[in-house]
Design a protein that fits this description.
Helix content is 41%, strand content 17%. It is α/β, with parallel strands linked by helices. The protein has a domain of 203 residues: NAD(P)-binding Rossmann-like Domain (Rossmann fold), CATH 3.40.50. The structure holds NADP nicotinamide-adenine-dinucleotide phosphate. Keywords: NADP. Pfam families: NmrA (PF05368).
Length: 322
């Protein structure tokens, strides 16, 4: 292990998030990097844990209008992992995620960062000729396009759907007979890529910073397993030893019937429907992407069954403690 001052410093934005936490932990555990972890609060459980692992904690909120703070926070860093938090979509022409992503990227450039890894997604607007509206994909892709114009090295990771969506946002409901109904935003038999961001983002970003030239300009999917909604439910039933069934929340009506709370924001509903229709009709990833890469460089990437066993999840709502 090199002495502390010789190890490159990597700033991790959103360090308490599932992805950010994974990245910071993997970089620190490698012994090859120092980590500066950015968060709104230093006292949350994930941030305290990162501090115990040796991260330098800097308090700055991941929100628009803080470019000068981002620049100051990234100064002296060799690299930066940049991401955006879950963002409520705005009616066009508002692009809140694009605006935040640009500020982060410009701050990295101004701070003299040499290599940025951006957590992005495909450009749905471009891939569908404007037929589907999924701003949290397209705005990330626009940030990527902006980063590519900057004079720094850049690499892009595209995380699959999170397994944790079912623990945090689309929690299954227990019926009177004790069985669980998974209302899933996908049709039953269409294979889709899924991932555990908490364990998969880190190994991908570590591999990229370890081989910067090899990955310059690359856009890389990060996947744990490709499986159908029905396979997810059947696997849950087997692993958790519970009776469980699939119900469709794929259409707008079905989504709102199962999750009426989404109906409080028309733009959230439009985005959710646009996103899943995009993924089903066009594919979550563009055809040229390498769907094997992340599982090659990280053979321990969790399948859904492994994720269920590791998280000891039996259908209850779970929070990730940020
Ligand atoms: N869900 C999916 O299937 C999926 C798939 C691919 C990509 N994504 C993308 O992944 C990103 C989210 O990643 P994640 O799930 O790892 O994040 P997360 O666990 O939800 O954490 C987000 C972090 O951002 C901060 N944060 C949350 N709300 C904020 C706000 N309103 N203002 C400022 N900071 C806020 C919090 O950190 P502090 O309080 O510590 O500051 C929090 O720890 C989103 O951009 C999403 O589009 C999601």
């Amino acid at each position: 292990m090199s002495s502390s001052s010789q190890r490159p410093l990597i700033t991790v934005v959103g360090a308490s998030s599932k992805q950010g936490r994974s990245v910071a932990t993997a970089l620190l555990a490698s012994g090859r990097y120092r980590v500066r972890a950015l968060s709104r609060r230093a006292d949350s459980a994930p941030m305290r844990h990162l501090a115990e692992q040796g991260a330098e904690i800097v308090t700055v909120a991941l929100e628009l209008g803080r470019q000068a703070e981002f620049t100051a926070a990234m100064r002296g860093s060799h690299g930066a992992f940049l991401m955006t938090p879950p963002t409520t979509p705005m009616p066009p022409p508002g692009q809140p995620e694009l605006a935040l992503g640009r500020e982060l990227a410009d701050a990295a450039c101004a701070a003299g960062v040499q290599h940025v890894v951006w957590s992005g997604l495909e450009n749905v607007e471009e891939r569908t000729g404007g037929c589907k509206w999924a701003p949290h994909f397209t705005e990330k892709a626009r940030v990527e396009a902006h980063i590519r114009t900057l004079s720094l090295r850049s690499t892009f990771i595209y995380l699959a759907f999170f397994y944790s969506n079912f623990l945090e946002y689309y929690v299954p409901r227990r019926g009177a007979d004790g069985s669980l109904t998974f209302a899933i935003y996908l049709p039953p038999d269409v294979p889709m890529p899924f991932v555990d961001p908490l364990t998969a983002a880190g190994p991908a970003v570590l591999e990229i910073f370890d081989h910067p030239e090899q990955y310059a300009g690359k856009a890389l999917p990060v996947i744990g397993e490709i499986l159908t909604a029905r396979q997810m439910v059947d696997t849950f039933a087997r692993v958790a030893g519970q009776k469980a069934q699939y119900a469709s929340a794929y259409s707008r009506d079905a989504l709102l019937r199962h999750f009426p709370a989404f109906g409080t924001s028309e733009y959230v509903v439009r985005e959710l429907v646009g996103m899943v229709e995009y993924a089903v009709e066009y594919g979550y990833y563009a055809p040229q992407r390498d769907l094997e890469w992340s599982r090659k460089i990280d053979p321990g990437a969790l399948t859904w069954a492994q994720f269920l066993k590791r998280s000891e999840w039996y259908g209850q709502p779970m929070s990730y403690g940020a």
